[in-house]
Fold this protein.
Amino acid sequence: MGEAISFNRDIRPILSNYCFTCHGPDENARQADLRIDIREEALDYGAIEAGHPDDSSLIDRVISTEDDSVMPPLDSGKDRLTEDQVQLLRRWIQQGAKYETHWSFVSPVKS
């Protein structure tokens, strides 16, 4: 399975750049009643099936070749995810799709 994927290091930047605009904290901009910045909501919606990337609609949408279902949408002005980004998402979901608290909310620890 390889190295453990870090949500904050590897996944949050992808989701932030490509997904959170429409599926994040801004309820006025949120599309399809899908919020993927909160693990429980992404799981409840079925966007992420922890341990099962092939059953996760997030993966289906980012690899889609259909103009009306690909994410990010063609009219968003964003590029498609690279193959490396898709593989990171797949491995993260395979490893359980663990989320981490944003670094700014974690108390510093003296080393």
